[in-house]
Amino acid sequence: MATGKKDIERLLERGVAEVIVREELAEQLASGKKLRLKEGFDPSFPDIHLGHMVALKKLRQFQEMGHQVVLIVGDWTARIGDPSGASVTRPMLTAEAVKANAETYMQQFFKIVDKDRTEVRWQSEWFGDFRLEDVIRLTSRFTIAQLLARADFAKRYAEDRPITMAEFLYPLLQAYDSVAIKADVEFGGTDQKFNLLVGRDLQGIVGQKPQQILLVPILVGTDGTQKMSKSLGNYIGVAEPPSEIYGKVMSIPDSLITQYFELLTDVPDKDLAEIGQALEEGDINPMEFKKRLAREITGQLYDQAAAAEAEAHFASVVQRKEAPENIRKVKMTDERLQKIKASMYSEEKGLVSTKEVGEPETEREWVVSVPLLLYEIGLAKSRSDAKRLISQECVGIDSKTVYETKALIKIGSIIKVGPLRWVELV
Predict the structure, then answer these.
(1) Cβ within 8 Å of residue 137, ≥6 positions away
(2) Among residues 294, 319, 344, which one ends one of the domains?
């Protein structure tokens, strides 16, 4: 399993923010030893987006050199829930919910990582029989001062905000995972550095060879400013349909093109340098690079045929503004209409003129509340989300941009939100 020096250098440099300790890991890779690569996940969040894909691609590259991925399902800690009570992002889960989320996660995980070279372990294998004396023995290995070195703990302590003892336990439990599986390398984003270092320290304390740590950069989301996150809505999910993935990649700011190529694709380094230079000099329209990027990412997650079909869909629906052939149809039942019909009275304007929204000419035309319509047919998460979309001029009905919260619809109306989401009323 010996690997050439150039291959190792590329493995430890491209798409990598930091390696601890780089020289040691390079030696292990050159030795031919089969390494155990630790990757853990919280089953409270079963969906994977391109931000997670950065580390998963690195895992796949290690696998292709013959190394073993060990995927840890954090089922035991997920069933405890959020120990601080200060966040709703880590809910207490039942065993059934954990299993369902884990299955969803793994379906997406194995779109990127080789299933045949992955060992799946459940945290409850070692924590299920943990006793109080085991917990005390674990906590005795570290001091409060060490744990307060974590940035978010230090900030809350300085602000006199509470930190529970259970919260201090989480990094220790994650560290014990490394001991339980005898990890050689642990992978994570730069925001996970503290927890991964605790694992390295604990292994040394108990007599194991300390794991190496490979940290990957944090991927910026489609908004071009913040970390990719589902809660911020600036994400691209790996399980989304090919046309959604392609379209979302095409929507990223030009400033992210080089970063996405580097972290999410396998284009040669020579091509990467040429793309960066061309973008800097303005020789080529960035749209052409985005098309290649969208094809590369969509093709990895599906196949080249799906990528080609997604590209054709984008050209038709987004560039030529044609309604897609497979447009989703929503039936306008009497019950649904009663929910979305709008009063012609506005608190701001009093009686609204039908000239502003159009006037029904038949029994199959109605004036409706656009926020209620978008929420009801699944094009907005909430009425407030719908109002935001209207204010951003993202909503169209029958080829006309919607500026008001009331509009005229009819059977056959085409509702569009952004360039990718379309619905026909039937």
Answers:
(1) none
(2) 319
